Amino acid sequence: MKTIEDETLPTKEECAGSLKNILDALYVLNGKWKMALILSLVQSPKRFGEIQKEIKGISPKVLAKELKDLELNDFIKRNVFPTTPVSIIYEATDYSRTLKSVIRELSIWGEQHREKIKESMRK
């Protein structure tokens, strides 16, 4: 590894491995809504309508598709209760909780970015 001013730079092989890992993660978590949905359901299980009210701007069609994608990748669980009418509750899985540090870091970065944009607009 090379170093520049006490910062270790990854080798070409390490970069290629990291890039592959990042692309895999982005493939599964792509889109505008998936991380917001995971965060919402990590806070508490919810019905479809509750999710839609909490996440402003998502259409029912897109919400249904995103929930199916998240369920297929084991980030959420769909619980069907045989009531009349049928009740469906979505909840985060333990696997989705493995994203806790990623969500925290994205939140911190997003706040810093927002401040950077505000600052550049003041100039």
TrEMBL record:
All residue ranges annotated as the HTH hxlR-type domain in the record: 15-118
PROSITE patterns listed in its UniProt record: HTH_HXLR (PS51118)
One of the Pfam families matching this protein, by short name: HxlR
Keywords: DNA-binding, Transcription, Transcription regulation
GO molecular function: DNA binding
Cited InterPro entries: HTH_HxlR, WH-like_DNA-bd_sf, WH_DNA-bd_sf
Protein name per UniProt: Transcriptional regulator
Organism: Flavobacterium pectinovorum
